[in-house]
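FAQ: What does the model actually see?

It sees only this:
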Amino acid sequence: MARAAGSGDGWSRLVALLKVVLPLAALGALSTLFLLSDRINPEDALPFADVDVEARLREPRMTLPTYAGVTEDGSSIEVQASEARPAQDGVKGQSAVDVAGVMTTPDGVVTHLVADAADLPLDQSEVTFTGNVVLDHETGYRVRSEAMTASLQRTDVRSDVPVIADGPLGQVTADTMRLTQGGAGANGYLLVFNGNVRLIYLPKK
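And it is asked to produce this:
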């Protein structure tokens, strides 16, 4: 009976010892994990986009917008820009930068146009391109101007300022230019130069 009592006392002492040792061992293991783990470098935080939030709120804008439509006479028009700003208080319409447009007439003739900027009025009846405007017509003419206006309701592109055009016959300079549908009942489209038109004829070699 004495041995049994002694064994019970030993078991009790072992349990009491383990109650102290095991928590200490757990704390030691946790402290080792913290010591061995990589320290956080504040400079390694996720980078944020370099965007002025306040400026975005003051001047909202759209990135890579696209406008597409069909005119009354069946020409398809698509205009893209790298950035556009919607109409705001005190502004008459939308504006865009780095603009590229494509117009395809029903007869399949394609006209490309690029410009530094463009303005679209509130009624969206036409778009005005400004700054290094270049129009490439499928007939072989490249027309350069500082401003051109294209109707979004019918095939009608015009420049009311001087233009320089390089084409199959040579170089043409003129006060104004207009690309529009032919006369009444005509199915074709005309590229017309007006006012002090000068042609430097360059025959093909």
